[in-house]
Amino acid sequence: MIDKISSFFSKLFESRSKFSHEKKSESIDGLYFHEEFSRQVALYPYENYGYLKSKNEQSRSFAKSNSDENGLANAIYVIEEKEPSALVDKKIGLSEIGSICLNFGFEKVENIYSGYNPDIYKQDSFVGYAFKNAEIFVSFEGETAIRIYLNGFRFQRDPEVKATLQNVLFQIGTAFNLIANDWNLGEIIDLISMEKVEAYLNS
Known about the structure:
Elements: E1 3-6, H1 10-25, E2 31-32, H2 35-38, E3 41-45, H3 49-65, E4 76-79, H4 94-103, E5 107-109, E6 112-114, E7 121-122, E8 126-131, E9 134-141, E10 144-151, H5 159-176, E11 178-182, E12 187-190, H6 194-201
Helix pairs in contact: 5-6
């Protein structure tokens, strides 16, 4: 799968992400998923740490050399090769992910939509879990998770909400030995470290 990484500065990107998500949510009976937003934060097997570190460095270098005087990217950095260790190879069951999310108060959402108005369409083989304005998206085949994406985890202000998000990420990370990569920030989050998860959510 090709991961497209837009090289916007983080504040600009976050404000656009939240605005787009809120607008789409008003008109659909589920969650809105767009790869340019939601796939900015994805979960990977820990074995990809070195690979992701290298790609983050390349992405930052690309952004620096392809930004105008206002810091806005005039090109998109595209990663065409696959990561060395795929999430699907871990054979994580949908029920395993779902159980963790539900235990922390997330709501399961089966209607996942993509696209732009007026051409919004329902995504097949996707399920979401929502808590407040934070979302976990899981693409799957059969009963096996293929990809896991996060959205809205860093936009929370309520300490209790942050604590819940911190705990669910830590539980997922330790259960399956996963890390997260925020492509927008160019940052790897070690999900088996409670302190690093907390630092990310507060960044």
